Amino acid sequence: MAGGALKYRHLNRSSSHRQALLRNLVTSLFTHESISTTWPKAKEAQRLAEKLVTMGKKNTEASRRRATQIFYDPIPLVTKLFTTLRTRYLDRPGGYTRVLRIEPLKPDQAPSAILELVDGPKDMRFAMTARTLAHQRSVGREVNDVTARNILKVTRYREGGEGALEREAGRWERVVRGKEKDKERAEGVGRGGER
Predict the structure, then answer these.
(1) pLDDT tens column, 132-165
(2) CA 111, 117, 121, 123 torsion: positive or negative?
């Protein structure tokens, strides 16, 4: 085959349209820290986002200029990249973003995904691990191997990770207890019992 293997996804767009699309996705990602899009777009935007965080960790004038060229809203995002995100990912050797597959969002059933920055306030794996931990504690089970591995993954590079996970798990335990109390009240009212 002429040209060798496919180096990147073309996404059925011209070069300028594809670059504009990826710049727009990355701008949204760094603004909101989590976006939903189709899976191929998320994988391509992930490549650009990882390069941007690496530029942020270098913290040189050339990397600042390059980041300014990529973002559509450069002033707040370059500041965020070179301050907040730089300190968050300073000790992490890579893997600053995560792509999670979800059910198709579009009517054409295109494979969809969530692209998110890890160790941030909207980290989905962190929330899911805390919820699983709270559920296993409320049922009285011990932590299984998969949950233990996820606990290690979400707390490894997060500053104060174990304490934050315990707080989030405690919050989920209170939510579960509140739902159980509401269910008991509803059953009591349904049977004609007292409130």
Answers:
(1) 999 998 888 999 999 999 999 999 988 888 999 9
(2) positive
